[in-house]
Amino acid sequence: MKVEILSVGCAKCNKFFDTVNDLINMRGIDAEIVKVEDMTTFCKYGVFMLPALVVDGQVKIAGKAPSESELIAWLAPTGQG
């Protein structure tokens, strides 16, 4: 699974990246997580509010941090959430 955090490097975006990264590590989820700070990529996904979470090419949320249960639903393989 590829997880992209779209961000501009602000404190809110960095905290969101850390939260997602920690959750992936704590749950042993097999995922590549990358921080994307490229405006062209934001536009490609149609994202104009940051931070945003993209999982396997699908925007899951933009402009706010989701709850932990939402993150788990999007990131945990079936049967692990």
Structure description:
It is a single chain. This protein is an alpha+beta fold. Helix content is 40%, strand content 23%. It contains 3 helices and 4 strands, in the order βαβαββα. The protein has a 4-stranded mixed sheet, sandwiched between helices. The longest helix has 17 residues. The radius of gyration is 12 Å and the shape is globular. The model has no long low-confidence stretch (mean pLDDT 91).
Provide a brief overview of the structure.
The chain is of the alpha+beta class. Helix content is 40%, strand content 23%.
**Beta-strand fraction estimate:** 15-25%
Rough shape? globular
Give the N-to-C terminal Cα separation. 15 Å
Strand order of the largest sheet: 2-1-3-4
What structural class do you assign from the helix and strand content?
A: alpha+beta
Biggest β-sheet description = 4 strands, mixed
Into which percent range does the helicity of residues fall? Answer: 25-40%
Q: Could you name the key traits of this structure?
A:
about 80 residues; 4 strands; single chain; globular; four-stranded mixed beta sheet
Outline the fold blueprint.
Elements (H helix, E strand, L loop, with lengths): L1 E5 L4 H17 L4 E5 L2 H7 L6 E4 L2 E5 L5 H8 L6
